[in-house]
Amino acid sequence: MNLDAIDRIAASTFEGYLVRKDLVRTFSRQFPVPTYVVEFLLGRYCASIDQDEIDEGLGIVQRQLLDRTVKAGEEELFKSRAREKGQVKIIDLVSARLDAKSDSYLATLPSLRLTDARIESDIVSKHERMLTGGFYAEITLGYDPIIAQEKNGRPFGIDGLREIQLSNRDVLEKLGEARTQFSTKEWKTLLLRSIGIEDSALSERQQNALFLRMVPFVERNFNMVELGPRGTGKSHLFQQVSPYAHLISGGKATVARMFVHMGSGQKGLVCQYDVVCFDEISGISFDQKDGVNIMKGYMESGEFSRGKESIRADGSVVMVGNFDVDVEHQQRVGHLFGPMPPEMRDDTAFMDRLHAFLPGWDVPKISKELLTNHFGLVSDFLSECWSQLRNQSRVSQLQNRVFFGGALSGRDTNAVNKTVSGLLKLLCPDGAQQIPEEDLEWAVRIAMESRRRVKEQQKRIGAAEFRNTHFSYVMGTDGVEKFVSTPELQSDNSIGTDPLEPGQVWTISPGGNGENPGLYRIEVNEGPGSGLKILNKPIPPAFRESIGCAEQNLYARASQLVGDKDPRHHEFTAQLRAFDASKSGAKIGVAALLALCTALLKKSVRGGLILVGEINLGGSIEAIHNPVNIAEIAVEKGATSLLMPVSCRRHLFDLSDDMATKVDIQFYSDAKDALLKAIIE
């Protein structure tokens, strides 16, 4: 293996906590144990970059896995060894239950098909997770021939066990110190390698989705749903990487197992694990009618009741499921919670308790090319660090640095805060470290998009209180309001309802000289300097003329349009993007002028708005010869409102009733009137 720069930094900062991920895959295919069990052993014997040491360690790991894992058909062989030698060591999933008849605990070892092994109560009390689904451990299984002679005797007993997880608890400080040696990009690569993924073939959106998957491990009471295609590794992270996560496969989920057993008082999965993941969520149902209500209550407050007693837990709830249809089509005909169980599918109160909807369609299918052959952090070290990070919060990093827009309700803000906090903990494990602006904005955008996706589905169900979904935030000294969209709502030939960035305006050219009308987006940026540059190569002559008139009107009427800002002290760069066959950009001067003004004012134009009209050098608005045709194109492109010169009003009597009900047509008298009606108040 060729070490790259990240391998070398990791080797110098994480000595003893690294493992080559290709070795893990080799062993995990051979033996019937989760990935983190294999890594536990590899981390103990192969945490080195020296090939000789690795080879020696591999021999030990191979022998231990051969000697201690029970393959199908070997059950009686291991039992026989225990009888002959008095004891045998195995690696297995151990669980326990209370046997009321004998007032003692009995252990279950599935690989040996043993359901009644004796186990001391003090071992059970030290490892309560045995009672809620169990965990993998190195087990010393004893055999007592005297008990075997007794009637109904139980000769097999657990003499000792050692959980497969890190014994050293002061690991978070080590992680925080080592983080300072990596750039943000290098650190992201190392984290993805640690869960087995090589990021070089991934887009930024794909990487972001994988980071969002990790948030429930580091954030208490984090509720997330992920729906996406098969084969993207949805359940892998929650089953293979951390002993602090528990996967519930399809079928009935009992309230007693999830929360608390009313008879014994035994606390359930959400109390015992950091993350409880429902796999194949469409097939999950609760054994009690009020199971979903208990779940909703827990997801809201982190508490549930047992009789008069209220019990608090901090386990995160993750729901994953398969989403087999086209996402854009599903958005048109229904909503994205379609694969959920019936009792959750259309319940807006349940949805409101979800902090994030991870777009599983953004995650690529797992293939050989995506699996890393480099070094990554050993899973037990990483999962221990993640577990300890749950005791911290990074919400304070947002204070006085990020301001959310008015569309976010209290629950929206809480959801975004929790997601941002989790992402920042992954990025900067040291709580004292100041988060750079670009990293903070990265986390904010992911968090707002994943929460907005939840709210968009609530809006589709028809609840009026969820109508405003235009999530935005303000960061930095320039005070620019930025809007966050969910990409599946957008399509290339539709303008959508989200406000654009300042300096961007949708417009329709009326065409002429043999060219049909067409949709355009004008994009203007401003900076220090003077003058106007057009980035299109070649520059369409008609567009050059329109934006030239717009520039002169901006200079001549600056005080009316942009107040005390002097446009002559700013350099503008403009680009025309065509969305139809027409390319000339003829007669779109008013939209060009508003693009220049909003770039200077740092204001956004209303979402879903198309602005049309031409302005001449004298400031007059020219008449449009085909306003009905333009209104029909605006409806076709998905506009919700259309802003036109007032001279078009009489011509629009010819617009059909059907078209007139699909778009809100407003009129302006001059450039200032158009600007005031176009921008967000």
UniProtKB/TrEMBL annotation:
Keywords: Hydrolase, Protease. It comes from the Bacteria. Residues 520-679 form the Lon proteolytic domain. GO terms for molecular function: serine-type endopeptidase activity. Pfam families: BrxL_ATPase (PF13337), BrxL_N (PF20442), Lon_C (PF05362). Its EC number is 3.4.21.53. One of its GO terms (biological process) is proteolysis. SUPFAM superfamilies: P-loop containing nucleoside triphosphate hydrolases, Ribosomal protein S5 domain 2-like. Residues 13-143 form the BREX system Lon protease-like BrxL N-terminal domain. This is ATP-dependent Lon protease. The lineage of its organism: Bacteria, Pseudomonadati, Thermodesulfobacteriota, Desulfovibrionia, Desulfovibrionales.
